[in-house]
Each structure stands twice: as structure tokens, then as C-alpha cells.
Amino acid sequence: MPNLMRVVVSLHPVPAEFDAAVESIRGVEFRSDLRVQEIRPPEGLAPNAIALAADVSPEHRHGDSPLGTGRFILMHDLSQPEAWRGEFRVVCFAQAPLETDIGDDAMLPEVAWSWLVDALAEANAEYDYPSGTVTVVNSRGFGELSPQGQGSQIEMRASWTPRTSDIGAHLAGWSKLLCMLAGLPPVDTREVPSLQTLRKAHGRG
């Protein structure tokens, strides 16, 4: 994995637990068609936070990928905020375009959420109190935007409370989910099928 530039926001002396979490994040290896870089996390979320941005098979060095993009933020607070019910909280986001007929599949949100749960389980990420949303947006251009035609997009926002400082496992699960939403073929035949399965079901495989 390419070295990640260190952009950790800390409002107080950094606890050993957060340092351990950051080191576990830095130990994650990503597939070659996923570019991951460290970014500045939003301010005021927690005493300590680290954020990553990922793009699937980017065609250029900067900017979001047309195939899939996401964000992964780890927050840490020794006071264990009531909403977190723990010292750590992961907040993540993943987005990818879809063919319109796949976007019309009523089961897609449930399937996508199950992919996240399965990806975290396969990475041995231990967590509690998950929450999130899966949104599918279908659009069509009109007027001067008519040439863009019809399109669909899936967007997932999720958060959960890790049980330990081994956050690398959570990052690995999230990165796999992002690649699945983008329709990349699995790198391991034992992996849960990605959107390729739905594409084949709709005659696009």
C-alpha cells in the first residue's frame, strides 16, 4: 500500500489507543484499482480523528472517480460519548453509479447493506450499534441536460462502534464494500459476488 500522508487531527495529547488504531489503519493493503489517500477530517467531530478518501480506478490523480468514491472517518473520544457507547466511532460513505435498470431493483438497498455486514464479518471487524442508510437515486436530464439521458446512483452512509483499536479490519471491510458497489470483480473467488451478479441478472454481464 502506498504510504499515507499523516493528517491526524488532535485537540489533546494523543492517547495510546488512538495511536494503535492509526497504526492498524496504516497496515491495510488495498487492491491495485483502489486509490486511497489520507485527508483532513472535519473539525469538531472528536478530540482525535483520522479520515481517508478512496476512488475506484481513477482516470486522473485528483477528484472523485466516475466509477466509485468514498470516505472513511475514525473518531476517538476517551469520554465515550453516549451516542457512541464506546471510545471509537467509524463513520463512512460510499457512492457509485448504476445502470438505470439495476437502480430500479427494489431489493438493492437491502442487498447493499448485507454486503457491508458480510464484508466487515469477513475482515473480522468487531463492532456494535451499527446504523446507516442506503439511497438509490434515479435521474433523467431535460432541456439542455437532455443529452445526459437517464442514470442511477447508489449511496451508502453508515456508522458503527468498533470494540477494539484494530481499526484496520474495519477499513478493509469498508474498502471491499466500495469496490463491490462500483461493480469491480472480486479478487478472491470466495468473496460475495458484487454488482456483477445483478448486472448478469439484468442481461448486462
Low-confidence stretches are 189-205
> What is the count of distinct domains?
1
Shape: elongated
The tally of beta strands, per DSSP, is 7
Protein structure class:
alpha+beta
Number of helices: 5
What is the radius of gyration? 18 Å
Instruction: Determine the strand fraction and express it as a percent band.
Output: 25-35%
Major β-sheet, in short? Answer: 7 strands, antiparallel
The string of secondary-structure elements, in order, is: EHEEEEHHEEHH
The helical percent reads: 10-25%
Quick check: average pLDDT?
A: 82
Distance between the amino and carboxyl termini: 30 Å
Task: Write up what this structure looks like.
The protein has 205 residues and is of the alpha+beta class. The protein has one domain (9-201). It is built from 5 helices and 7 strands. A hairpin with an 8-residue loop joins strand 2 (34-39) and strand 3. It is elongated. The relative contact order is 0.18.
In short:
It is built from five helices and seven strands, in the order E-H-E-E-E-E-H-H-E-E-H-H. The protein has helices spanning 16-26, 100-103, 108-122, 168-181, 195-201; strands at 9-10, 34-39, 48-56, 69-76, 88-98, 127-140, 150-162.
